[in-house]
Amino acid sequence: MGYLSLAIICSAAIALIFKYTENTFTNRYVITSANYFFASVTSLIMIMYQRLLSDVDREGSFINELYILSGNEPSLFSPYASVIWGILVGSLAGVFFFLSFVYYQKSVKDNGVGISGTIAKLGILIPMIFSIIIWREFPTAVQWIGILLSLVAIVVVNLSKRSIKTLDFKPALLLLFVFGGMAEFSNKIYQQYALNEYKDVFLFSVFFVAFIISVTYTLRIKGKATYRDILIGFAVGIPNLFSSYFLIMSLETVNTSVAFPMYSAGSIVLINLGGLLIYKEKIAAKNQLAIAMTIIALILINT
């Protein structure tokens, strides 16, 4: 739970930094590109510092170890296969990371922040459901109650009567749900089959691919970059990297069906508290209800 708590803190930090930019003229695409760049550079430094690749035995074949994916034998990839798996899954995750960001921006424009935020947060249903179906990670009865409470809290904190009335369901919402959920699920897919000590290779692949796509898109739309946008992006990059880093660590000991609701709902609590303490924002009545529900949910999930 310690690693999961750190992941929650990092996730909340990302939202609180972005909150700082809400009332200022900033280029979100430049910030996002800078964030991916700094996260990929940081993970590359971690790889080089630990000399992860220099000690990998390159004998054997990744193809010959694919039987592990069948799940018939509970084992993990070898160091060399773990590196290859990290690059493959991480590269695909990088695409999902960027697409979820793009469709979040598009959905906010079409449907507003409330609906978009709800759908984005509910993307955790994808790793939850797949983990139950594929790896049989069933929560206990009490944990199920906590999970349902946390999901309700996510809806309560993001939705309002106005956002529901103005809802005009468009494909962007479905794509936001799928891409966001798959981006989170990629952490589990890597952790389930690969050696955890090579997670920095996976994270480098995620953020490097996302950076390449993001900077290409930013240049195509001729986004204007300022030093301030780049610095904000760098500030976001560190918690963005380590939210995934600690989440992967936590998945070794916490079931996915439990970890992701805690991760999402716990972030909501910290974001609201951070808004109160840092930005002097009042916590709305419905958010207070959501925080109370989340705290109860976390207690139930941990029983």
Any overview of this molecule?
The chain contains 12 helices and no strands. The protein is an all-alpha fold and 303 residues long. Helix 4 (113-122) runs antiparallel to helix 6. The model has no long low-confidence stretch (mean pLDDT 85). It has helices at residues 2-20, 28-50, 79-111, 113-122, 125-135, 141-158, 161-165, 171-193, 199-220, 227-250, 256-278, 285-301. The protein has one domain. This is Multidrug transporter EmrE. It is a multi-pass membrane protein. The chain crosses the membrane at residues 6-22, 29-49, 83-103, 115-135, 141-160, 172-190, 202-219, 231-248, 260-279.
Beta-strand share of residues: under 5%
Class of secondary structure makeup:
mainly alpha
Write down how many β-strands occur, each being a DSSP E stretch of 2 or more residues: 0
Helix content: over 70%
Integer tally of domains:
1
Number of helices: 12
Largest sheet: none
Low-pLDDT segments: none
Determine Rg (CA atoms, Å): 19 Å
N/C terminus separation: 12 Å
Shape annotation: globular
The residue-averaged pLDDT reads 85
